[in-house]
Structure formats: C-alpha cells, structure tokens
Amino acid sequence: MAATNKRRGFEDLIARRDELADVSPPWTAPEQDPSPTVQATTTSGLSDPASAVPTPRPATGEGELDEQDRADLAVCEAAIDGLRLAFWAAGKALQTIRDRRLYSDDYPSFEAYCAERWEISRRQADRLIAAWPIAEQLRPIGLASLNEGQVRELLPIASQHGPEAAVTVYGTVAETGKVTAAILADVVQQIRDRFDPATAADDIRAYLARDRDVQGDTGPTDPTAAWTVEADRLRTTVRRVVSRPAFRAAARARPEEARAVVAELRALLDELEATALAEDQ
Predict the structure, then answer these.
(1) What is the pTM of this model?
(2) Domain residue ranges of the chain, discontinuous segments joined by +
(3) pLDDT at 203 over 70
(4) How far apart are alpha carbons 8 and 44 in whole angstroms?
(5) H or E stretch at 69
(6) pLDDT tier at 34 (50, 70, 90 boundaries)?
(7) Distance (Å, rounded) from C-alpha 128 to C-alpha 90?
(8) Half-sphere exposure (CA, 13 Å, Cβ side) for 170?
(9) CA-CA-CA-CA torsion sign (193, 95, 171, 229)
(10) How far apart are CA 40 and CA 31, in angstroms?
C-alpha cells in the first residue's frame, strides 16, 4: 500500500471534504450560514484549521475587547464550531468515497477501507452518511447547538417521513426552549407514527406544553396531563432501551442481571397497578 494511504487520523478525512464531489440527495439545499470560517493551507494542500487559530497567551487587561480580540474570538469560535459539525463533513466525504468507489485502488471493499484507513466500522460510517443530509438541512436553524447526537435522534422520523419532517421537529422544539437529544428522541417517539405535516408543529407544541405543566413550569399540575405525559415517557424510555442492539447483547451476556432488572420493573408495575385499583375501590 502506498505511503500516502498511511492512516493520518479522522481529521484528514474531514479536511479533504472540499476536494470531494457533492453527492447530496435531491433535496432543497439550505443557504449557507454567514458564520466566520477558518481556513489555512498546509504544504500538502489540505485544509488545516488549527494553524489559523491564535496562539494562547495571557489576557493583556480586564477592559472591553479590542478589535483584534474580537477577531481572534471569531476565529476561535469558528474552529470550535467546525469541530462540532465535523460529523457532517465526514459523512458527506464518506458517501462520496463509497458511491464513487474511490477506495478501490487499495481496498477490496468500502467496509475494509473504513476499518483499515479510519479504524471505524461500516455501521459507524453508514450512520455518518445517513446523518449529514439532515445536518445540512438543519444547519441554518440549529447552528448554535446542533450536534451528532441530536441528528441521530432525528433519523427515524427523517427515514419515515423525509428530511422536512426532521426540520419541523427540530425547529419547533428550538422555538419552545433548549434543544437536547433526549427531548428530540421523546418528541420523535410521540409523533413519528402519526406525523402530519399540516399539524405536526402544533402537535409538538401541545406535547411540550403538557410536559412543562407536569414539571410545574406553568402552574399547578393537571393530573390528566401528568398521566398522559409520564405514561408516554415511560413507554418511550422502555422502547428505546430494549430496542438497542447493545442492550440486547448485554442481556444475553449477563442473563442473571437482565432477569433481575426485569423482575424489578415488574414489581414497580405491580405497585402502579395496585395504586390504580385502590383508587377504584
């Protein structure tokens, strides 16, 4: 294998994104956000953002930032932002390499390329490839907090209803408060099987409003709303956990502990049932 194919780290793959063709699916491309970018060029011609970041040094005073300080801040924040969105660039690059078989001179398969060149599994590569188009759609509205964990939770609804559904979910959650992967997963679980583009935003707002009411953010808790939200959350949590391949594999490897967990859950459910029966009597 040629020396140029020596592993140089995952950052090299990300850095080469500008050399690769655009293999975007035929979705409407969002406008590029105007955030400052960091670019520098090494002798190899590859982008090297780190070389453009100012060298750390002690602060020269405690007053307001001067023009140079503000410029340096913009460069530093752009570098951090680039790291946070690296999964998006890597996924796009991996799809180009896979679809055009750019690995074929030195590797027998895309799976071998991923494993030997970048030390990632085919599953990891496929996940990055699936995530980047969603991230590209979301970037104009989610730049402040968007990360791979959030995009991953949106993949189920995007695969079922299209990328516009993922944008609707993210945008509606963002307008009502802080966006986290857990909140997105919760919302997606609630609406993915009954998603209607015409009413989805209102459905999400209503669900999140009930959730805030249960948590006491908007006044006294409504018992009916509390039951609806907490029951939905319980179903969502159990389904998410037991459907994970890693959890199933762990249960097979540690059956006694798995049985103990199931027994504990059954005991809690029996307690809940006893409470409900007591109220009926």
Answers:
(1) 0.53
(2) 1-45+70-144, 147-243, 252-281
(3) yes
(4) 13
(5) helix 67-84
(6) very low
(7) 7
(8) 29
(9) positive
(10) 23
